[in-house]
Write a structure and sequence with these properties.
The protein is 36% helix and 24% strand. By secondary structure, it is α/β, with parallel strands linked by helices. The strands form 5 sheets. The chain has an 8-stranded mixed β-sheet with strand order 8-7-6-9-10-12-11-13, sandwiched between helices. The protein has a 3-stranded antiparallel β-sheet with strand order 1-3-2. A 3-stranded antiparallel β-sheet has the order 18-14-19. Helix 7 links the parallel strand 6 and strand 7. The structure holds S-adenosylmethionine.
């Protein structure tokens, strides 16, 4: 069977059915139209009957094609990718090239007007898949778990970084399609197991757990690909609470999540509470919040239910259910847990609205390290600590023209999470001199002399002023 998939991969590559090939053939206009679910420009761009146009029509656009000479229809059918009907070839799946260079196989895309989704629909790789993939640490690991693997896309990203990969899903069809995608991508030896949450890996430990879970918060678990059937945001909560039991020492768990904003409750307490008592350091980031109506519309559109006879009824029922729980909004974000082995774990919960440097996975370990280092840095240690300004930090000064002193000083990161921090003159002066060579105590004493402030006073205020700047990665603690 592997030979068959190797041959088919060659066929796809020879035709140029790659991310770049499809992008180039469709062009900007057709690709943008497709994102609005309009297929006409893409059909026009692929009407020549050449191999690439044919494959795009077949698997990207999901329309029947006349089998051109050279298309090994019998082999494609044996691989579960097409059926043929008197010279016409019809795709049975959505087969998409992916940014890692491999292929992802899922159920055919639904577009407005298509028949209703089946409950065990296997969704293709999309924006959320890419978001998780860019968040996941690039650190090579021994054992990785992809919980809720679906079309198997996270495995494509983990391959080459994890020596052993276990992928689980409650939906057996998902595992079936994922296996085809892995075979087409030349990824062997993925240990695929069926079951809910951590059931299939009971008693095991992993260095990395990743999950793009069924996080959609809805009154009924209608579609396995996005809804768990757990109450409200209970699936993400349980995943977070249980994950530490499956982490090896030093292990990391990273997931996407949705959470409720409930009237009278701070969302930070709700989600932060999920991590309390796990023993892990944690980082929770809210990237977006939608109001209940926006949220319901998003997911009804996602299942192509807009404009159907049941649209109003589903919309009304979903909205009423959210209202009954006093929901004011739904947060979208990332959760990372790290088993650092500490007895004094820290959980940082924050909103990040700005564009960040991608992939976050390239520096996420550093982000967690900064949060933990700041938390565990005692006031007594501070004078002896050598700090180094992070690479790419700029200083901005704003003030009335001609004024001697600025009315506002901002430190701005041009790298990583691209945070900004309003600072005072002392912190700004530190940013100018901290290169990791000298301990903070003598530096603060020198700054006190220059600014005319009391050195003891500066030292006393230092923990409150400096710790947040370390936590946010403006300064690193130098160990050199
Ligand atoms: C949003 S899809 C993620 C697919 C893929 N990992 C990605 O990143 O695009 C969520 C997956 O979780 C699976 N799932 C749903 N309920 C589950 C459960 N109780 N335990 C494990 N997986 C579940 C679904 O079948 C689906 O494949």
């Amino acid at each position: 069977m592997n030979d068959l998939f190797d041959r088919l991969r060659e066929l796809l590559l020879d035709a140029g059915y790659t991310i770049d090939g499809v992008r180039e053939r469709l062009g900007e206009v057709a690709a943008t139209a497709l994102s609005r679910e309009e297929t006409v420009p893409a059909l026009r761009a692929t009407r020549d009957g050449d191999p690439l146009g044919t494959l795009i029509r077949l698997w990207w656009l999901g329309v029947p094609v006349d089998a051109p000479a050279g298309l090994p229809v019998a082999e494609l059918a044996a691989a579960g990718l097409v059926t043929s009907d008197g010279g016409r070839v019809v795709s049975t799946v959505h087969l998409q090239p992916w940014e890692t260079g491999g292929y992802v196989v899922s159920d055919r895309k639904v577009r407005p007007g298509d028949p209703a989704l089946r409950p065990d629909h296997v969704v293709g790789a999309g924006g959320a898949s890419a978001n998780l993939a860019q968040l996941v640490t690039r650190r090579p690991v021994e054992r990785a778990l992809d919980l809720g693997t679906g079309c198997g896309v996270q495995v494509l990203h983990l391959a080459g970084r994890a020596r052993e990969i276990v992928a689980t899903d409650v939906n057996p069809r998902a595992l079936e399609l994922a296996r085809i995608g892995w075979a087409l991508s030349g990824i062997r030896d993925v240990d695929a197991r069926e079951g809910s949450l951590f059931e299939p890996v009971a008693g095991e430990r992993f260095d990395l757990v990743v999950s793009n879970p069924p996080f959609v918060i809805s009154p009924a678990g209608r579609f396995t690909y996005r809804e768990s059937g757990f109450e409200a945001d209970g699936f993400c909560r349980d995943l977070v609470r249980q994950a530490p039991r499956f982490l090896a020492p030093g292990g990391t768990c990273q997931l996407l999540a949705n959470w409720l904003h409930v009237r009278g409750e701070d969302w930070r307490d709700r989600v932060g509470g999920w991590l309390t008592g796990t023993g892990c350091d944690g980082w929770v980031v809210q990237r977006d919040v939608q109001d209940p109506a926006e949220y319901v519309e998003l997911w009804l559109r996602d299942a192509a239910e807009q404009g159907t006879a049941r649209y109003r009824e589903l919309y009304d029922g979903w909205l009423g259910w959210l209202e009954s729980m006093d929901v004011t909004g739904i947060g979208f974000g990332w959760i990372t847990l790290h088993d650092s082995g500490t007895l004094d774990p820290v959980v940082r919960v924050e909103e990040l609205g700005q564009r960040v440097e991608l992939p976050v996975g390239g520096y996420v370990d550093e982000v967690l390290g900064s949060i933990a280092a700041a938390h565990r840095l005692s006031g007594a240690e501070l004078p002896g600590v050598r700090l180094a300004l992070a690479e790419g930090v700029l200083e901005e000064r704003i003030g009335p023209p001609g004024a001697e002193d600025p009315s506002q000083i901002t430190l701005r990161q041009t790298r990583g999470l691209r945070r900004t921090a309003r600072v005072g003159t002392v912190e700004a002066a530190l940013a100018g001199v901290c290169d990791g060579d000298y301990p903070l105590g003598p530096l603060l004493a020198a700054i006190a002399e220059l600014t005319g402030e009391d050195a003891d006073d500066l030292l006393a205020k230092a923990p409150e002023a400096i710790r947040p700047l370390v936590a946010e990665g403006f300064f690193h603690i130098s160990t050199g």
